[in-house]
Design brief:
This protein has 227 residues and is α+β, with helices and mostly antiparallel strands. The protein has eight helices and seven strands. Helix 6 (153-161) crosses helix 7 (181-200) and helix 7 packs antiparallel against helix 8 (209-224).
Length: 227
């Protein structure tokens, strides 16, 4: 489990983990980038197949992990996903805007096939609740910047999902704690920085970059707009 974005404690998340219908084999609370690397390496050396990267600012619903683990079996006739993302909500039940993944729409046949199974193919994912297959770490190694969730979630997931599919699993739900105004503003600005790093990285193909540049320009305008 990763640090809370707002710097607060992770006790609510730990309590939510105790209520999971499918209990994690082990829970590791990460405090810094080096701890993240140690935890991931330990899990891989122990033979772990799926690693749940859970943000300390979200509380997963009791069936969150079980629904993520069910998803690969629902698409066994399609390419195996390397990443599965929960739907992250705000406390009022609306989608948390800072956690919404970017859909993958380049293959209409895949989109339809996956949608029929109540899933959604994604091209990028943001921190929240992500279940990552060990094959992703074995292929690409650990995130190049030290940690996926210390400001580089977009870059890391872009690289991870460039050759393999990822899925949003709407039946798997996590709720993000409300952030203070100051923390929310800091998060918006950090999102723009992450977008710039994404455009300069090798996570996106040449055809993809113009579209993402347009999205980034919209975010930048929103951040700079008074009020």
């Amino acid at each position: 489990m990763l640090p809370a974005e707002d710097g607060e404690g992770v006790e609510p998340t730990l309590e939510a983990l105790e209520r999971q219908t499918h209990s994690p084999d082990e829970v590791v609370v990460v405090r810094h980038a080096a701890g993240f690397e140690v935890a991931i390496r330990g899990a891989l050396e122990g033979g772990t197949e799926w690693i749940w990267l859970l943000d300390g600012s979200v509380a997963p619903a009791p069936e969150a992990l079980e629904r993520l683990l069910d998803a690969p079996g629902a698409v066994d006739a399609l390419p195996a996903p390397v990443l599965l993302a929960s739907k992250v909500l705000s406390p009022d039940g609306s989608l948390d805007p800072g956690s919404v993944p970017v859909p993958y729409v380049s293959d209409p046949d895949l989109v339809v096939a996956v949608f029929d199974r109540r899933l959604l193919p994604i091209r990028l994912a943001r921190r929240g609740s992500l279940l990552v297959n060990r094959s992703g770490f074995e292929r690409d190694g650990l995130p190049r910047t030290g940690s996926v969730f210390f400001g580089d979630d977009l870059v890391w997931t872009a690289r991870l999902l460039k050759p393999e599919p990822g899925l949003l699993v709407p039946a798997s739900i996590a709720v993000r704690r409300p952030a203070s105004h100051r923390a929310a503003e800091r998060r918006r600005r950090a999102s723009v920085g992450a977008g710039l790093r994404l455009l300069l990285s090798d996570g996106l193909g040449a055809v993809e970059k113009p579209w993402f540049a347009g999205r980034l320009a919209e975010e930048l305008i929103a951040v700079l707009r008074p009020g």
